[in-house]
Amino acid sequence: MPIDISFRAKTQTISAPISVSVLIRSALSGEKLTGRSAQKILADIYRSLVLDHANAYKLFFNCLSGPNNFPLAFCCVAGKDRTGLAAALLLTALGASRDTVYDDYLLTNTYWEMPTDVLREESDEVREAVFTADTQYLEAAFAAMSEHYGSAESFVQTILGLNPERKEYLLAQLVE
């Protein structure tokens, strides 16, 4: 049976069930944007995902640790923001190097096409900042984890609840 875990707030899901996140749209509204200001907004959003939406990631890890939940697919429209962070956290939990985490995250740019019908009123620089996976966004999330929890590994253990037994289970399920 499918399990649905949303990394978005309920109001975001209702307001924009498929299109660009309400979080991104609201952050982008109200000011003249440049590529750099859009990048800063996205970095702030990634920090917010860690600090304000940890419960969704905890549910994700609970699902991963449950019996009979594999194979498992998790996705979103772009796969780079909420889902990208989920994948980065999972790889971190499994002991992947930071370089491996970044390399995996950047695959979004290879396998996903930037939409042409969203944020058309913005410049190409802004659209690229919003729709491209950029390691500075993940770096902002990892910095928030380090600042508030000591490290990404500590965040995964203490906030997401990945104890040694659950980690061993995930390693057995996901690593050859």
Overview of the structural elements:
The protein is mainly α and 176 residues long. It has a single domain, classed as Protein tyrosine phosphatase superfamily (Protein-Tyrosine Phosphatase, Chain A), CATH 3.90.190. Helix content is 62%, strand content 0%. It has ten helices and no strands. The protein has helices at residues 10-15, 22-28, 35-52, 54-64, 82-93, 98-111, 124-131, 135-149, 152-159, 164-174. α2 crosses α3 (35-52). It is globular. The two termini are 25 Å apart. The model is unreliable at 12-20 (pLDDT under 50).
> Structural class of the secondary structure composition?
mainly alpha
In total, how many domains does the architecture comprise?
A: 1
The CATH class name reads: Alpha Beta
Rg over CA atoms, rounded to whole Å, is 16 Å
> Please, what is the average pLDDT?
84
Give the proportion of residues in helices. Answer: 55-70%
Assembly category: single chain
Inertia-based shape: globular
The CATH homologous superfamily name equals Protein tyrosine phosphatase superfamily
The end-to-end distance, rounded to whole angstroms, is 25 Å
Order of helices and strands: HHHHHHHHHH
Query: What's the story with the biggest beta sheet?
Result: none
What is the name of the CATH topology? Protein-Tyrosine Phosphatase, Chain A
Q: How many strand segments?
A: 0
Which regions are unreliable across 5 or more consecutive residues at pLDDT < 50?
12-20
- Individual helix count: 10
What is the correct CATH architecture? Alpha-Beta Complex
